[in-house]
Amino acid sequence: MGALVPQILAVLIHAVSRIVLNPFIKNIQTSWVKMGPSGVKASLDAGANDLGGTLMNESITRAAGTRHGQEMLPETMEQLIVQSGRKPRQRDTVYRNADPLQKSKSFGNKLLVN
């Protein structure tokens, strides 16, 4: 029960943020590093509309005690998004669509760490 409470609170914060910050902030991001796949799916279902980006060799959140991994493939991110009934879209840092060539290069790779 103890580990579940922070995740429930994080999902609640995403949901309330969607309500309170709309229309001033359009994109509410959830982090797979901090919340893991189940927390991400719950946050997307609760109102988040952006899944945090691809990280490699992430260490800060892991040092704080999470165990959700250091890396997630774009294919896995897309599966989580589709499972939440959303349409995945790669973007740049200012929310423009990713360049098609860059997007194609991001798929079909192997994890660098296990």
UniProtKB/TrEMBL annotation:
Keywords: 4Fe-4S, Iron, Iron-sulfur, Metal-binding
Domain CofH/MqnC-like C-terminal: 13-98
Presence of keyword Iron: yes
Transmembrane segments: none
Secretion signal span: none
Cofactor(s) it depends on: [4Fe-4S] cluster
Single Gene Ontology MF annotation: 4 iron, 4 sulfur cluster binding
Keyword check for Nuclease: no
Region (Disordered): 83-114
Protein name, as recorded: CofH/MqnC-like C-terminal domain-containing protein
